[in-house]
Amino acid sequence: MTTTVSAGSADLATSFRAIPTTIIGDSQERFGLPAGLHPMWNSEPFAGEAFTVLTVPGDNLGIHQALSHIRPGQVLVVDGGGYEARALIGDLVAEKARALRVAALIIDGAIRDVLDIAKIGVPVYARSVIPAGPWKNGPFRVGAPVSVGGVVVSPGDLIVGDTDGLAVISPARAEEVLATCHDRLAQEEASRAKYKELKPND
């Protein structure tokens, strides 16, 4: 179970926070982009290490257990099986996450209390919103590889999020991906400058 955030990973998170997920996706040949999960409100971009939990669909007992071990700056990544008939989190879980300085909550399932969560300020990504609350029976598994939006996420993977969605980066490739991102950003800036000088066709 990953319970600490290294200085190196924190530096990488800071670097990736400034890079759009679209650029990260292009730099990874469009891999590592969870599908079907959306920002639940217009939060600031974030980046941090994944802290994972696998839950029974519609049950959030494992989420509460995971929050007992997560460290500041980490991202709680919840494999809820994409189940949307019960909300896995609401405003109380978001408030707890804010107090623990969790970077973001990634829920492969549904949530509720969206307006209150937006006021709390923790970035939340999920599939949908529903008023129905969760069960709290388990079982669950904390700190194991999970699948979110069709992408396998392992503890310690770097998660980046913005208004376009999410990107997952393996620590083993993070430096390489970061360098590729900077190259792509430079290429896009050059193209943008060129396009601004275009004249209408006759």
What topology emerges from the helices and strands here?
Layout: H1 7-17, H2 21-27, E1 38-39, E2 46-55, H3 61-67, E3 75-89, H4 91-99, E4 104-111, H5 114-120, E5 124-126, E6 128-129, E7 140-142, E8 146-148, E9 151-153, E10 158-162, E11 165-169, H6 174-196
Parallel strand pairs: 2-3, 3-4, 4-5, 4-6
Antiparallel strand pairs: 1-5, 2-7, 2-10, 8-9, 10-11
Helix pairs in contact: 2-6, 4-5
CATH topological fold name: Glucose Oxidase, domain 1
| Rg measurement, Å | 18 Å
* Ends distance: 63 Å
Order of helices and strands: HHEEHEHEHEEEEEEEH
- Number of separate structural domains: 1
Specify the overall morphology.
Answer: globular
Low-confidence stretches: none
Helix content: 25-40%
In the CATH scheme, the class would be: Alpha Beta
Number of helices: 6
Assembly type of the chains comes to single chain
* Class computed from helices, strands and strand pairing: alpha/beta
CATH architecture: 3-Layer(bba) Sandwich
Number of strands: 11
> What characterizes the major β-sheet?
9 strands, mixed
Mean pLDDT, nearest integer? 96
Report on this model:
The protein is of the alpha/beta class and 202 residues long. It has one domain: Glucose Oxidase, domain 1 (3-Layer(bba) Sandwich), CATH 3.50.30.40. Helix content is 32%, strand content 29%. The chain contains six helices and eleven strands. β8 and β9 form a beta hairpin. The longest helix has 23 residues, at 174-196. The model has no long low-confidence stretch (mean pLDDT 96).
